[in-house]
Amino acid sequence: MTETGRSTYLPGHELPRELAPxxxxxxxxxxxxxxxxxxHGYNSVYLVAGDECSALIEGGHPxxxxxxxxxxxxxxxxxxxxxxxxxxxxHTEVPHCAGFGRWLEHFPDxxxxxxxxxxxxxxxxxEDRLRPLAPGDSVDLGGRELRVVESVFRDFLYTRWAFDTxxxxxxxxxxxxxxxxxxxxxxGATAEESPALDIPDMTALxxxxxxxxxxxxxxxxxxxxxxxxxxxxxxxxxxxxxHGLPIADPKKTMPAVNEGFRIGAASRALEGFR
Amino acid sequence: xxxxxxTHVEGRLYQLPNxxxxxxxxxxxxxxxxxxxxxxTYVLREGDRAxxxxxxxxxxxxxxxxxxxxxxDPLVSIECFPSNIGEFSSICNAKPxxxxxxxxxxxxxxxxxxxxxxxxPEFSPYGTQVGQGRxxxxxxxxxxxxxxxxxxxxxxxxxxxxPPLRLLPCFWAYDRETGALFTNDSFNHVWRPTAEGPWTVQxxxxxxxxxxxxxFLTNSxxxxxxxxxxxxxxxxxxxxxxxxxxxxxxxxxxxAITEPDAIQTHYELLLEVLQLAREQEATGVMAGSVPMGxx
Lengths: 274, 295
Description:
The complex is a heterodimer.
Chain A: E1 2-6, E2 17-20, E3 23-26, E4 30-34, E5 37-41, E6 45-49, E7 54-57, H1 65-76, E8 84-89, H2 94-97, H3 100-106, E9 111-114, H4 119-122, E10 130-132, E11 138-140, E12 145-150, E13 160-164, E14 169-173, E15 180-181, H5 199-210, H6 219-233, E16 238-241, H7 250-266
Parallel strand pairs in A: 7-8, 8-9, 9-10, 14-16
Antiparallel strand pairs in A: 1-4, 2-3, 3-6, 4-5, 5-15, 6-7, 11-12, 12-13, 13-14
Helix pairs in contact in A: 5-7, 6-7
Chain B: E1 6-9, E2 13-22, E3 35-46, E4 49-53, H1 61-71, E5 77-81, H2 88-91, H3 94-100, E6 103-108, H4 134-137, E7 139-142, E8 158-161, E9 172-175, E10 180-184, H5 210-218, H6 231-243, E11 248-251, H7 260-278
Parallel strand pairs in B: 4-5, 5-6, 6-7, 10-11
Antiparallel strand pairs in B: 1-2, 2-3, 3-4, 8-9, 9-10
Helix pairs in contact in B: 5-7, 6-7
């Protein structure tokens, strides 16, 4: 896989984009070649606007920060978007919270929440504004809560997902992630707006690259738990991953994502399992 | 606090350890672990060239710059190799190092590494571009396993490869000249009760027990190991130790292992952990529900 540079948007949707009432999507495509195909991946950031305050979900990739900040300013300028109070990160990997130093400094009333392990080593000086949250914890944005839930597909042990109680949006970090095609206008689109997107293959590719552990475990148990969380416990209506296109119809699209997990796992021999 | 440079091979290979407290708020260790571990930067030297492996955490910036001052001079051409460009412990000090020393090349997993390495607000505050200034003058390259990286002008190839055991995408590397195996987030299982070190496993030092290493791994980055099919990882590890003449194991965090007997002991210990793990009941699904502690 080799990189070719920053994206040039082809017809699709410009970001920022309001995906659901008060849920905004920020990002800039990262493009690279893979097996003669030009692929894109996102390091998305989302904003959830309550009646009293707003929260950013995820902290961006370093190379995206100038573009992300321009998009954030654009949305914060709206009358119906209150000031930022919370910066939520799923975990402290570079593409998920690189902007937190700049944002904690620029927005002095904000606190970093979620999985904030290591952040005192990365952004010294902000120690008193780091608040680790566990599944079940929540913050009140006014008229909606941002609830912390368990991460089913994760990197670090204390990776957290977040759930917006008003729009039933689940922010899944690395959890449900896939690349998309640059050439057919998928940029800025939801999965359902991108019918040509091969979600299983793209999910498998991402899992192979980034979720190494999925090759070695019984994935069915994780898929079962994910389905329980999404549909039985939370009633998720919108999935907002960090690296994939948002999923606007989870019941329709998640079977393809699950198939991708299985393809990724099967790419490695599981002989001898158990 | 002991942040003395460790000379592994005079004029050729240095370990620059910077300790951090295990206080329940670090991702590298279980939340119950207490004591101190070093995050390590390594410097390979060859004449007027150097290879810098990882740049540590921001909080160690001044210490790391002092350490580098002691093993480099301003004219040395430095190539910077983050063994995991997606993790902060590899990249936090790339910017201040570039501003002080003669960094000539960055290695990334895709092009444009200079824009991956610039995120700290004290250097690039909100609203400003990243990767500018001296960083924009540095050549960006993509790290590949084949051919080996030629940082030394043809005399000392740096072999990189995808490791058999890891959490996130990263490289292991081997320096044939010194027999150093750089193991990123494996072989990190030795730490100390205080910040005074030492930051290498000592001659005759008793290794941790199998249970201690197992608990360390499965309660931190390798939460997914219980019940996993570890055969492939085990085979990969054996292959590496058969292929290379390894005279030291140099992890990104934790104590370096340099004594011949200790290398064999800790290698066998990790193999035993992998064997033990696959016999266990899988616990990974619910691991995401674990509340975080700390003191």
